[in-house]
Specification:
Hypothetical protein af1432, 17 helices, binds fe (ii) ion, 289 residues, mainly alpha
């Protein structure tokens, strides 16, 4: 089977909300301004309302309430609001598939939030823009799993069988049944949706072995490694529910790139759990996306 068959199978079923596509296009053209961002979001009133609600929640802890989108962009910043809009757009793809009996969507969404929360800690960078990028990378890393289940329900059931009964890894089972993996499918869609290359790489390499060839292709190693490590750590911590429980080892060069010494790794778990609780509080439940 070819990866391009995904587009024919999926049509508009998996289409990213147009707000996210417009935002990604503006970012690509380097023409996203506070004004254009507020205008794009305003065209989707339910999304605008959710963003305002989130902006005023304890997630951002603003001293004063904001009552307009323009104000929210001014106070919280262009990048923050942009990433919130993208996160809610990814969430809406999960939600669209909530009734699918083949998969525990709520569990996978929580796994994605946990990966996002963990990646914000593991990227080990105090700049909010880097942390927000890491959060988005974690949120979106398994998006390909959903697209595969929707496009190939029969084959996906066989994939799950191979994972559960034959103990295969998700990637190996997908390769055997479909000829490509959920990380390849996710990267394929992220490219179609015009996400930046570093987010595409975070999806594409979240189960990688990191051969020399892989390493040469990665545009932002800190981001990719933070998502890779986050995906594995949250599985060990039991936060959310991933499709397979296989945990990859985190090689020393990843910790080195993230500038995290091995002695502090156990203590990071508490910070990850706190960050997850905060994010899960705001990105789950009715009306979150
Ligand atoms: Fe995955
Ligand atoms: Fe994952």
């Amino acid at each position: 089977m070819k990866l391009t068959e995904l587009t024919e199978k999926i049509h508009d079923l998996q289409s990213l909300p147009s707000v996210a596509l417009q935002i990604n296009n503006e970012v690509k053209k380097e023409s996203l301004t506070s004004k254009t961002l507020a205008a794009i979001i305003s065209n989707d009133p339910p999304l605008a309302a959710k963003i305002l609600k989130l902006a005023n929640s304890s997630f951002y802890g603003l001293a004063r309430q904001v009552d307009t989108l323009d104000r929210a962009v001014t106070v919280l910043g262009l990048n923050t609001i942009k990433n919130v809009a993208l996160t809610l757009s990814v969430c809406s793809i999960f939600k669209k598939n909530a009734a699918n009996p083949s998969i525990d969507i709520e569990g996978l969404w929580r796994h994605s939030i946990a990966s996002g929360a963990a990646a914000t800690i593991l990227i080990n960078n105090s700049r909010p823009t880097e942390k927000e990028k890491a959060f988005l990378g974690g949120i979106i890393h398994d998006i390909g799993a959903i697209t595969l289940i929707m496009a190939f329900p029969e084959e996906s059931r066989l994939v799950f069988k191979k994972i559960q009964e034959a103990g295969m890894s998700q990637t190996a089972a997908e390769q055997e049944v479909l000829g490509f993996s959920h990380q390849e499918a996710g990267a394929f869609f992220a490219e179609k949706w015009h996400f930046p290359q570093e987010i595409i790489d975070a999806i594409k390499f979240h189960h990688a072995d990191y051969t020399q060839d892989d390493l040469k292709k990665i545009s932002n190693k800190k981001l990719v490694f933070s998502v890779y490590a986050a995906n594995n750590i949250v599985k060990v911590m039991g936060l959310g529910k991933s499709i397979d429980s296989e945990v990859g080892t985190i090689p020393k060069f990843i910790w080195k790139e993230l500038n995290i010494s091995e002695e502090v790794i156990p203590s990071l778990r508490a910070a990850i759990k706190d960050e997850y609780d905060l994010a899960a509080n705001h990105f789950t439940g009715e009306g979150c996306c």
